[in-house]
Amino acid sequence: MPTTLSRRTFLGAAATVAGGSLLPHSAYAAPAIRRSRVAGFAAVSSANGLRAVERAVRLMQEGTDTLDAAVEGVKIQELDPNDMSVGYGGLPNEDGVVQLDASCMHGPSRRAGAVAALEGIKTPSEIARLVLKHTNHIMLVGEGAKRFALSYGYAEEDLLTPRSRERWLRWRANRGAADDWLDVATDEPTGMRPTGTINCNVINEAGDLSSITTTSGLAWKIPGRAGDSPIVGAGQYCDNEIGAAGSTGRGESNILVCGGFLTVEHMRRGMAPTDACLETLRRVVAMTPPRLLGEDGQTDFQLTFYAVNKKGEIGAASLYPSRYAGHDGTTASIHDTASLYKGPR
Ligand code: GLY
Questions:
Q1: How far apart, in whole angstroms, are the C-alpha atoms of residue 133 and residue 311?
Q2: Beta-strand relationship, 338-339 and 314-318
């Protein structure tokens, strides 16, 4: 199977991002925005993506295409049974079935691919890329997505690990007082249901960008539920002339604002990546119904956006303080996000 994209379209490296930052109000600042133009390469990811940005930047420095590098980066988490938010070992839906979502965009060719509610395939990022490369479509879902993957030689496998099955059994045994299941002890924290996900956005020395997001989605979701991750413009978005952005956290709240696209549009207007992410979060809050707000008026969920612009500047912001992984072309490290709210919920 080929691992590099043919480039029907190649856009030059001319940067169009205006300089300067539109400073946000009412937000908690992250440390400085990181710059990478010395080395020419950069990547930004969710905090579980430290190995992803390391691998993606190394591959790009070896000449690998930006999307292929990003896919190889996030595959580390997809194949890691200990990451219960992505791929193999991800937490299942309410029926105990792991359903995976992923989407990606390739900046130079302006193409996109996605899969949703994909069962039995460990690496939905690769299947989303196959949709991008080999079809005239953008999204395949459910059984059709699985048959598409099998046609390319992927093996159907049980994605539940003993650990993720145990978490599901505990959830099922404690989900309601009026059901027929007998109680067993739970270690499930109350309040926020696990969401997880990995998003990764990259840029190479030529200024070409790509983005990808992959997830097992909201734990215990209604079968068939697709979150923001497989939705181009929500879970991730890439414009090769401007930048790329993506998200982790409560997908439904992101879908309402098309957050990946909106964040790139904020960068188009001249915002630095972190400021663009914060501005998108303000829109999220404005769209949040009262039932999802606490007595303090703050959201009862977490959502984080990550972004890189054409200059190779990276940043991230979340509703509540969180962390993200960044690579400036030389070093990969974990940083604090900027946040709209102070302190943990
Ligand atoms: N952001 C991941 C999800 O909501 O499924």
A1: 27
A2: parallel
CA distance linking residue 181 with residue 189, whole number of Å: 19
Residues across the chain: 345
Alpha carbon distance 220, 222 (integer Å): 7
Residue 329 near ligand 1, beta carbon < 6 Å: no
Domains of the chain in start order, with CATH, are 42-339 (3.60.20.30)
CA of 215 to the centre of ligand 1 (A): 7
Q: Tens digit of pLDDT for each residue in 153-180?
A: 999 999 999 999 999 998 888 877 666 6
Name residue, tokens 């999220």.
284
Q: Which residues are catalytic?
A: 197
How far apart, in whole angstroms, are the C-alpha atoms of residue 42 and residue 266?
A: 20
Pocket test residue of 86, 100, 195 for ligand 1, highest count of atoms within 8 A of CB = 195
Per mean pLDDT, which range of 26-30, 95-99, 123-127, 198-202 is the poorest?
Answer: 26-30
d(CA 270, CA 286): 22
Instruction: Provide the whole-model pTM.
Output: 0.87
Nearest to 212 by CA among 338, 67, 314: 67
Report CA torsion sign: 168, 174, 180, 181: positive
Sheet holding 236-239, edge to edge: 236-239, 243-249, 303-309, 314-318, 338-339
When pLDDT is averaged across residues 323-331 and rounded to a whole number, the result is 97
C-alpha 165 – ligand 1 centre gap (Å) = 20
Residues contacting residue 318 through CB under 8 Å, at least 6 positions apart: 249, 281, 302, 303, 304, 305, 337, 338, 339, 340
Q: What is the 228 CA–ligand 1 centroid distance (Å)?
A: 5
